[in-house]
Amino acid sequence: MDHFHYRERELFCEEVPVTALAEKYGTPVWIYSKRTLLHHLSQIQQAFAAVQPVICYSVKSNSNLGILQVMQEAGSSFDVVSGGELHRVKKAGADTSKVVFAGVGKTDEEIRYALESRVLMFNVESEAELDAIAAVAGSMGIVAPVALRLNPDVDGKTHAKTTTGKKGNKFGMDIERASQLAAKVLADKRLALHGIHMHIGSPILTAEPYAEAVKKAVDVVTEYRRQGHDINWVNLGGGFGIHYRKQEALPASEYAKVIVPAIQAAGCRLALEPGRFIVGNSGILVSRVIYTKREGGKLFVIQDAAMNDLVRPAMYDAFHRIWPVKPSIDPPADYEGEIAGCELADVVGPICESGDYLAKGRALPPMQRGDLMCTFSAGAYGMAMSSNYNSRPRAAEVLVDGATHRLIRRRETYDDLIAHEML
Ligand code: LLP
Question: In whole angstroms, what is the distance from residue 245 CA to residue 321 CA?
Fold first, then answer.
């Protein structure tokens, strides 16, 4: 459930008409619903309540300080993958003792920064990284808490660019290799093994890969305990799927059903790193039609959002529902294929690449210059992956809370574009 809905053929975010937001803040504009953010977080909190998990909102999915603050106030912790993300969560007031630090390429500077910040643990991805963490911790005279990231060799059945848990991709390590590293940790006073980390991929629309992964994780923990490790944590990463097309995603409780009993049986603590599940359907991208044109037997709707704003369609062939803010036709239950009264169109941006589209062959009601349109499910990996390509200033971000709204990132200016350059 989210708090974007049509009332008498006009799109609202919570109590606020989207048209009013577009008028006030301009377009393209990202609009987030605080109620939806809180609702999705609480779904996970409730589904897993029996094991009192530490929920580490995955900052990479949307790192705006305003969003991080909402998460922080609602009791979420954070998963960070860079010094920059750690800086952000500290600015948002995070309790760093519950923050996990992941990523295949942590630099010594980042390791030092995370140790100084007393993070909960590092998700370690290789022997070389383990050595680096030990060296930095040693130089600081402290013990570094680590979790070994395993590659569970589980197929998450997701896009090739976002699958992470199969043998042969760059993430984590094989279970056999991890056992060697565990022995190494045991012998090293600068390190303490606290847990096992796995992330299968994203988005994952079934519970089975999690069932497989948690079983493997728990088996490994049991084995390591036997070897003398005081190991407690199982971190299953993120990846829970969301509704992009229609109602295709599982509720959090379905994932919990397969994960919670295994965690309870092993007497472990659970950490999760959800990003998309929380913020994906909490955000929309609103744009304005600049022109329409017909060429080569096709209708093109050219609007002011582009691949520099939302790269997911170009990069992952991602499907985002698109519909006018004030449509002449009620939104359909199914956005795929033909819709009565609609015409198929390519929704494109102004960027000089054929890959610059938000949708292809999409049924839309008649659109005109000046109309507002909404791209749904854009809260995760939207603004976070945006760029200034074609020297386009990044769009504004607005957070709606009931009948109120505020800017959480102002629109960039032309001067912002050149602010870091030198003549
Ligand atoms: N934990 C780890 C170790 C991850 O690599 C990721 C995502 C997450 C947690 C959060 O996954 P989520 O719950 O948000 O699915 N840019 C792509 C997605 C890349 C995901 C990268 N890792 C997209 O737009 O679909």
Answer: 6
The structure tokens listed for 41 are 């977080």
- In this structure, the residues whose C-beta lies within 6 A of any atom of ligand 1 are 58, 61, 79, 102, 162, 164, 199, 202-203, 237-240, 273-277, 312, 316, 380-381
Using one digit for the tens of pLDDT, what is the confidence trace for 280-312? 999 999 999 999 999 999 999 999 999 999 999
Protein residue whose Cα sits closest to atom 24 of ligand 1: 381
Report how far apart, in Å, the C-alpha atoms of 307 and of each of 100, 202, 235, 394 are: 31, 21, 33, 11
54-58/77-80 β-pairing: parallel
174: enclosing H helix or E strand: none
361-381: string of b/e by CB count within 10 Å (b at 16+)? Answer: ebbbbebeeebbbbbbbbbbb
Ligand 1 atom closest to the CA of 275, numbered from 1: 14
Q: Report pLDDT for 123.
A: 97
Task: For the chain, list the domains and their CATH numbers.
Answer: 4-32+280-417 (2.40.37.10), 63-274 (3.20.20.10)
